[in-house]
Amino acid sequence: MLQKWSQTLIPTTREAPNDAELPSHIMLHRAGFIRQVGAGIYDYLPLGWRVINKVSAIVREEMEAAGAAEMLMPALEPFELFKDTKRDETYGDNLFRVKDRKGRMNALAPTHEEVITQLLIGAVTSYKQLPLTLYQIQTKFRDEARPRAGLLRCREFLMKDAYSFHFGVEGAGGLNETYDAMYRAYTNIFTRCGLDFSAVEAESGPIGGSASHEFMVNCASGEDTILKCPASGYAANVEKCEIGDRAHDLGAAPAGDLTEKHTPGMPGIDAVAGHLGVSPSGMLKTIVFKVTGGAAGAPSWVLATVRGDHDVNEGKVKALSGCAVMLAPEAEAKKAGFAIGYVSPRVVNTIPGCMLLIDPDATHAGGWATGSDRADHHCVNFNWRRDVGGALDDASKVRVGDVRNALEGDPSPRAAGSRLVTARGIEVGHIFKLGVKYSEAMGLWVLDEKQQRRSVIMGCYGIGVSRTMAACVEMSHDENGIIWPAAIAPYHVLICLMKPDDARQREAAGEIACRLVGEGVDVLLDDRDERPGVKFKDADLVGIPLRITIGDKSLEQGGVEFKHRADTGKARLVPTGDVVGVCLEGLRTGV
RNA sequence: CGGGGUGUAGCGCAGCUUGGUAGCGCGUUUGACUGGGGGUCAAAAGGUCGUGGGUUCAAAUCCCGCCACCCCGACCA
Questions:
Q1: How many distinct structural domains can be found in chain A?
Q2: Which CATH number does the domain housing residue A380 bear?
Q3: Contact A113, A438 (CB under 8 A)
Q4: Strand A2-4 and strand A132-141: pairing?
Q5: Are A390 and A310 part of one and the same domain?
Q6: Which domain holds residue A144?
Q7: Residue A523 domain flag
Q8: Which nucleotides on strand B sit less than 7 A from a protein beta carbon?
Q9: What is the pLDDT of residues A513-535, one digit of tens each?
Q10: How many angstroms separate the CA of A94 from the C1' of B9?
Q11: How far is CA A302 from CA A4, A269, A348, A401, A525, in A?
């Protein structure tokens, strides 16, 4: 299609609002793609909306190709819908609540598992109707505690969400088959969008195993940390990343007498380490978790001890302990006797109902510095065997295993001798296996061939469409503006008309535009009566992949100027008759 | 939710300490000169100084409350 600049709204600005800090936020604002309406709420202006629609179109094609059918569910839902799955509680304050005129509570949907599960109850009753995959592209709402980073973390945003329904997990028509199909579809989508991305293992859903993958746009400013093994190709979010085998030894001999030191007002590792004159890697950090909904015989508390320079990973604590846990509320933990901020592993012997998890890296060496189980005190020369004793040999009380976040340089879990490397990413897609979490909570079942009720097995698959636009800018820009991949650029070609009131130039532009449109190319014609400098600055800012400049200079030489946005050099002269072909070639080879 | 910061013209900012007619740059409008990387000159339009209260003869400025927005942290199926 052809769009005249003068007939749309592209409010470019020299300066971005002071609030904008990230390149994507600054550029999208300055180039006239978005405007902020409130915290985490944005207008999508004509250029921004075109990018969103280009992404959406690719998403639709790949979803349909993967056998999913599009539909649309409401953003506004009765609050009761969230009761069965308890997400009114578990989603907590992130769930937008709206009271209507009759005083009823409603929710603005953060995602649509409940709505679609409700829909399927009654609509699908036989195993013969499965598998089934439905999707929508819809506005989602999350009452984020802190919206930030422009389009990357919004309270209202555009998301593609798909849900699949199955009779089984394995085999034809099973969850795994659709999951794999979605994995391929996502790979196709982000590849076609022209993004540099990684698929990584993510914190798994209720089914466990490697049942979840995130698709991350590779970008140094990304919010998420991912780790990769160069040898095996293993890649995972830091929340999930396993660590290869590490030696451990709880038997080292004491290095000296356990000595208590006064460390007033220093619950943090760095302050204590400085005060005691030891490095954080010579300290032990013990984090207290409360066991939630523990069965009979389960511990009440799970303690995780890691080296002072390491971070405890809650998911790994759950896995190693076999308990559902949450970070212990400070008041509750203090009441139970924990000197929060000054806890040592010795409490496993003094406070009833404790299970202690020890990271392998926290086992070696003789004299550790650690808390003293008394406020404002730490001790030095802690020794596992001497100071914890027999409990170390009781697997119901003490377990050694991976409970910390992986770090650059850690051994790979998939290739002996290989070390993990870190990278940053922006999450734009997430797929995972839900299992029967929603179907059992809400009563979605079908009859099998023996007329037995079977809960439907579900998967769900999301793509942040508006976030993808921002992530792309984050990944692809220079100091002058955005550099769009052709596939999701608002237009493919920008025709820069130097003198819009010059008949010869106007005719040339019209003819080229017409032929490009005939080839299915989207053309933006800058027909504004502006100085060349302004037009070129705006052209770079907006970032259309190809630029044709039409002015007296080139016309007199029988051609027009052609330039890739990504090229830093000067434009080259192309005969007027050839420029359409050159553009098509440029779009074909990618930009 | 804890800590920090900012609200003055469309955008970026000064003015506030020490109360006394609302300022600057960019942008916008009009005209002229220009015409290949945000040009020059001239004239002009545009502001309940976030909001409510208080102090005062007088408040953008001092005091109190509230709201909005941003950053760090916590949080993020």
A1: 3
A2: 3.90.960.10
A3: yes
A4: unpaired
A5: yes
A6: 23-70+110-242+423-473
A7: yes
A8: 1-2, 6, 10-13, 25-27, 34-39, 68-77
A9: 999 999 999 999 999 999 999 99
A10: 37
A11: 65, 20, 9, 13, 65
Angle, helices A46-65/A465-475, rounded to nearest 10 degrees:
110
Beta strand A69-70 pairing with A132-141: parallel
Q: Is residue A4 part of a domain?
A: no
**Burial category of A416 from C-beta neighbours within 10 Å (exposed 0-12, middle 13-18, buried 19 and up):** exposed
| Cα distance from N-terminal residue to C-terminal residue, chain A | 20
Say if A94 falls within a structural domain: no
Name the DSSP class of A82.
G
Which residues 163 to 202 of A reach strand B, CB within 7 A? none
Distance A530 CA to B44 C1' (A): 21
Report if residue A249 sits inside a domain. Answer: no
A2: tokens are 């052809």
Amino acid type, A375? A
d(CA A204, CA A447): 29
Residue type, A552: D
Instruction: Quick: pLDDT tens for A200-253.
Output: 988 765 444 558 899 999 988 888 899 999 999 899 988 888 898 888 887 777
Q: Which residues of A513-524 are buried (b: 16+ CB within 10 A; e: fewer)?
A: bebbeeeebbbb
What count of other Cβ atoms lies within 10 Å of the Cβ of residue A546? 26
